[in-house]
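Problem: given the chain below (238 residues), write out its structure.
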Amino acid sequence: MENTVLHKAATRGLADIGWLKSFHTFSFSNYYDPERMNFGVLRVLNDDTVASGMGFGTHGHQNMEIISIPLEGDLEHQDSMGNKTVIKNGDIQVMSAGTGIKHSEYNRNLDSLVKFLQIWVIPNQENVTPRYDQITLNPEDRKNKLQQILSPNPEDEGVWIHQNAWFHLGQLDKDFGTTYTFKKKGNGVYAFVLKGDLTINGQELNTRDGFGLWNIDQIDIKASTDAEILLMEVPMQL
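Solution.
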């Protein structure tokens, strides 16, 4: 299809270092594919599983909007701004790294895995004051509809970032269909299937597939089975 890109789940990069298993949709760390550097300003989409009691030691970031979406388990976060929190399924966490931030992330449980999505978005402002936020979402608000979880506007639903981006989560029953209309002209949408099977504009997608579309105004989504989806609308121009 024209103005689309399809990333099947099995084509993602994989880092498996024992305590961490991380699938990379886009080039990251030791996984490099010049054809898969980004989707517009969406730079990183990592699908991480962390072993019990393990995690990422203190490390730094600058000038990046970093979003974490826990899928399973409890992830403990600590940063150089003095935040010490736990995020779990149903939460969304955002950090504006700006002029610089250091943080660590650990699986706080000794008997279960942590699974979460780590997403990086290139900001539209550099060297902002570092910022941290997290909220708990209401899962009922995504039942057979698209729940906004991120936007550019602090007053809107969800968290906000320094970029004209909008994220939505949907939990769709089999055979349910819906339409997503782009918020801003010139943006694209990257869809990531968390669970199940569905079609977007006729393209069949399965669990953990990614599908990007641009130069259109809206997309049609139809669930083939019970399915969960993350839609990330982002500017296509860096």
